[in-house]
């Protein structure tokens, strides 16, 4: 089953990278405010370049001062099932530790998409999963702890 990963990345601006596996690459969208489990919430999603599958395993600090540097955590990960993939629309099911159920990405402009949670049994109206669960699913660290190079288990 294809996988997905959501990485919280402190680059030029703090944002979430939502990555879905298509064959041997991860198609990626930068989501500034992060995904939501509330179907009423629409999140801007900006497509970025495809990444190698190995990029989805990175947690740490990218060295250097150019864009794309900074702390990265694996905010969520799991499997993804693509339900519909056509120009301008993608719908999929995520089975992760934080994100579960159906989601959709819809193109609304040249480099502008909207990420929405479907109103299914995994929807959580009124919730804010980004604020409620800020830490990495792999190490338990926040991006700030990764940036400070704190090892897992230290607080």
Provide an overview of this structure.
The protein is mainly beta and 155 residues long. The chain has two helices and nine strands; from the N terminus they run E-E-E-E-E-E-E-E-E-H-H. The longest helix is centred in the last third of the chain and has 5 residues, at 143-147. The chain is globular. It starts with a strand and ends in an 8-residue tail after the last helix. The relative contact order is 0.23. The model has no long low-confidence stretch (mean pLDDT 93).
Compose a concise summary of this entry.
The chain is mainly beta. It has helices at 129-132, 143-147; strands spanning 3-10, 14-22, 25-31, 42-52, 60-62, 70-86, 89-96, 100-109, 112-117.
**Main sheet, how many strands, which sense, barrel?**
8 strands, antiparallel, barrel
Task: Write down the oligomeric state.
Answer: single chain
Indicate the mean pLDDT: 93
**Mass-distribution shape:** globular
- Work out the helix count: 2
The span between the termini is 35 Å
Query: Which strands sit side by side, in order, in the main sheet?
Result: 1-2-3-4-9-8-7-6
How are helices and strands ordered from N to C?
A: EEEEEEEEEHH
Helix content: under 10%
> Which regions are unreliable across 5 or more consecutive residues at pLDDT < 50?
none
Ordered list of secondary-structure elements with their pairings:
Elements: E1 3-10, E2 14-22, E3 25-31, E4 42-52, E5 60-62, E6 70-86, E7 89-96, E8 100-109, E9 112-117, H1 129-132, H2 143-147
Antiparallel strand pairs: 1-2, 1-6, 2-3, 3-4, 4-9, 5-6, 6-7, 7-8, 8-9
